[in-house]
Amino acid sequence: MAVVYYNNQNPSGNPVVEQNLKLLYVCKAETIIPTAMHAHENHLELQYISGGKADIRIGGHVYHVQKGDVVIYNAGVLHDECPDLKCGMSFYNCAVKKFHAPRLPENIFLSHDVKPVLHTEKMSGVVETIFRELFEQISQKKFCSAEICHHLLNALLVILSNQIPHEKIIRRDKFDASFRKCKEFIDEHFAENISVVQMSEIANMSVSGFSHHFKKIFGLSPGQYLIRLKIGMAQKLLIGTDKSITEIGMELGYDNVSHFNNQFKKFVGASPQNYRKLWVGNEQFKNLNHIYNEVMNG
Length: 298
Prior knowledge:
Blueprint: E1 2-6, E2 22-31, E3 35-38, E4 44-58, E5 61-66, E6 69-73, E7 79-83, E8 89-97, E9 117-119, H1 124-139, H2 145-162, H3 177-189, H4 196-202, H5 207-218, H6 222-240, H7 245-251, H8 257-268, H9 272-285, H10 288-297
Antiparallel strand pairs: 1-2, 2-8, 3-7, 4-5, 4-6, 4-7, 4-8, 6-9
Helix pairs in contact: 1-2, 4-5, 6-9
């Protein structure tokens, strides 16, 4: 259903290849399984929707995506993905490190006032071909794949930057400094089982007022948002580390593994163990820490 290939190669030193940009991994998937709230702290991720539909939540906005759309996940930006239950969603994605755009921080492709969904339209065939070739180069371990992927990736980034229309975000809901401080506190301390009372006190609001305002802006109650953060981090740890299911549950503030398993399965539709095997496969599953650390820190 889903296959992730990590790239542990670097360009060999050919003088025409710019050395800094690094392709971390490429994924090809077809799924109806949702991915809960999470962020990629140290890299940029690009996703091409090759079929189906999904609702993707990024920065408090929900975007309806379909075939031909490219979704940009800037480093550090929380997001989740809910494929359509009837037709699912098929996609390619790739992770990029050490990307620099003019006047923007590292691994930020689009500024905060630009919609993170790009409609490729007439360029969709070219964009899909590049994603597919990136996947085939890495998965088949072709000769000189690192150099080829580097050039393909540069071509993709230039096309997305200059040949695909960018739309501005129209922001209707604004929140003050206290509410922003509370949101940042939740995002940083979600594993500590903080209560809605604590959240509302930080926001300097009543519990009912805070809950109403939070849902109006983010489309989720504070409790729902908190659970999505936990499940999202669990999915991230299941795919990126060798930690046991019990260790992951404890790290996220669950009293026992049974409660963690039940809440995870209720949201995702699969147990943590089956989710891990489904996304990374039996071979990579046995060696996740080594692969992940080699790629991310290499």
